[in-house]
Amino acid sequence: MPTYRPASLSYNAPAMKTPSRPPLPPEIRADQSVELLQALHILTRDGKLNQDSRRKLKQVYHLYQFIEPLLTEVMTRRGNLTLADHGAGKSYLGFILYDLYLKAQTSGHIYGIETRPELIANAQDLAQRAGFERMSFLNLSAAASIRDAALPDSIDIVTALHACNTATDDAIRFALAKKAKHVVLVPCCQAEVAATLRQTKAASLATNALAELWRHPIHTREFGSLVTNVLRCLQLQSHGYQVTVTELVGWEHSMKNELIIASHTNAPRNTARKRLEEILDTLNLNALRGRFLE
Fold first, then answer.
1. How many CB atoms lie within 10 A of CB 63?
2. 16, part of any domain
3. How far is the C-alpha of 61 from the C-alpha of 56, rounded, in Å?
4. Domain range spanning residue 155?
């Protein structure tokens, strides 16, 4: 099937039904550009949503409800904002944030950070056609993004939507280095902690009754995923962030469903760091101290 590429994208026309356009799915927001959703292949040319696109759009819209107050807080306080989307992929989140919020503003910039050059090229092309001038897409690794001159020294908001395994930790490291005011994470496929639990399981079982929590392989995977996000929350708290954990959408839509929102309030840090160290020690995870205790 040929790729649909509109000759031009118009974002100024009001959202309304016209004789030439069939009724849109009820999930589409009235202030959302239909042409953008078509260019992102979320909507088909005739304005339809398939099941996968409907699920994806529901997640992004729901995430937007959490991010919009953070955008408003920063914009009100500073009159400007910078947002970095780490592991941006096809940049669905960045484009929808720009379309629903930043296009109505006179300032603010979104950076999409991604390691796959073909996705960067596609995003750059779409941003140019859409006239989204305050979007940049950078083909950078996690480590390189911290020091690259194309990014400012500080970033107001860092997002990472379904950043797989340690990519979420990379986003946290980036946020800490850039002194982010807000961090919004939807972790995915946490495997590193589970792998370490597996390697040290025999030693843990010999000395710690709690190791029964991850004796069986399926429990190792599930417990490892839970512990990973607990450690991430404590890491953020140990750097002065206030952390909230909730569901992104209903479990029927995605099993990778945990949403972590952190805002820097310079909250007390010592207790969180102490508990983080104790958990690493108790669960025989000291091999990961460098990742979570930076």
1. 21
2. no
3. 9
4. 59-292
Tokens of 39: 């260019």
Q: If you write DSSP's letter for every residue of 145-167 in order, what string do you get? A: HHH-TTS-S--SEEEEEEEETTH
Coil/strand/helix, residue 31 = coil
Would residue 180 count as lying in a domain? yes
In this structure, is residue 53 part of a structural domain? no
Cβ atoms of 169 and 185 within 8 Å: the answer is no
pTM over the 0.90 mark: no
Checking DSSP bridges between strand 241-247 and strand 109-114, what pairing results, if any? Answer: unpaired
Q: How many Å separate Cα 50 from the centre of its chain?
A: 23
What CATH number has the domain bearing residue 110?
Answer: 3.40.50.150
Start-to-end CA span in the chain (Å): 48
Structure tokens at 205: 């079982």
Examine residue 251 and state whether it is found in any structural domain, yes or no: yes
Task: Evaluate whether 84 touches 174 at the Cβ level (below 8 Å).
Answer: yes
What's the CA angle centered on 84, arms 253 and 258, to 5 degrees?
25
Bridge-based pairing state of the strands 82-86 and 241-247: unpaired
Q: Count up the domains in the chain and report the number.
A: 1
Q: pLDDT tens, position by position, for the chain (294 residues)?
A: 444 444 456 555 444 444 456 677 888 888 899 899 999 989 888 888 888 888 888 888 989 999 999 999 999 999 999 999 999 999 999 999 999 999 999 999 999 999 999 999 999 999 999 999 999 999 998 889 999 999 999 999 999 988 777 889 999 999 999 999 999 999 988 889 999 999 999 999 999 999 999 999 999 999 999 999 999 999 999 999 999 999 886 544 445 679 999 999 998 889 999 999 999 999 999 999 999 997
Inter-residue contact 42 to 53 (CB < 8 Å): yes
Determine the residue type at 188.
C
Cα–Cα distance measured from residue 117 to residue 127, given in angstroms and rounded to the nearest whole number: 15
